[in-house]
Amino acid sequence: MTAILDPDVGKGQVVITKFHCGGLGRILLILLLHIRVKRDVRRYATGFIGIKLLVEWRQRTVWSISLWRDLDSVYSMGSVSRHVAASRVPAKLGVRTSCDIFCHVGEWTRVMFGNPAGSHRSRTASAER
């Protein structure tokens, strides 16, 4: 099966950032920093949909998963001064970060099963006939 991926920067984007904190105190600081910055991102960034923070306490890691309307929305974070300032804090604390941005690539059955756009029948359903 050939994968059918058709990136569309005009549709939903997911940004996942991983903060490798190394200590409980740094985890708490990163969480507080997110709470403080989130209000300004909601207010000043366009297309922000929401964010979820997950903590792996034993690994001393914080995951930030945010949803955006389109890629231009992700770039609009650059105009949020509190976010720009906050993005420099983890390095000063000795927290390592990594980040990935995932682009909308199509309707799920098309991506997973190679069905044409708009078709809601899976290959399994076709094979059962």
Could you provide a short overview of the structure?
The chain contains six helices and four strands; from the N terminus they run βαββαααβαα. The protein has helices spanning 24-44, 71-75, 81-86, 89-93, 108-113, 123-128; strands spanning 13-20, 48-56, 61-68, 96-103.
Features:
6 helices; alpha+beta; four-stranded antiparallel β-sheet; 129 residues; 4 strands; 26% strand
List the topology elements.
Layout (H helix, E strand, L loop, with lengths): L12 E8 L3 H21 L3 E9 L4 E8 L2 H5 L5 H6 L2 H5 L2 E8 L4 H6 L9 H6 L1
Antiparallel strand pairs: 1-3, 1-4, 2-3
Could you describe the 3D structure shown?
The protein has 129 residues and is of the alpha+beta class. It has helices at residues 24-44, 71-75, 81-86, 89-93, 108-113, 123-128; strands at 13-20, 48-56, 61-68, 96-103. It has a four-stranded antiparallel β-sheet with strand order 2-3-1-4. β2 and β3 form a beta hairpin. The longest helix is centred in the N-terminal third of the chain and has 21 residues, at 24-44. The chain is globular and about 50 Å long. Mean pLDDT is 86; it is low at 121-129.
**What level of helicity do the residues show?**
25-40%
Low-pLDDT windows of residues: 121-129
The multimeric state of the shown protein is single chain
Q: Total strand count, please?
A: 4
- What summary fits the major beta sheet? 4 strands, antiparallel
* Structural class category: alpha+beta
H/E element order: EHEEHHHEHH
Distance between the termini: 20 Å
Q: What is the gyration radius calculated from CA atoms?
A: 19 Å
Average residue pLDDT: 86
Strand content range = 25-35%
- Count helical runs: 6
Strand order of the largest sheet: 2-3-1-4
Shape: globular
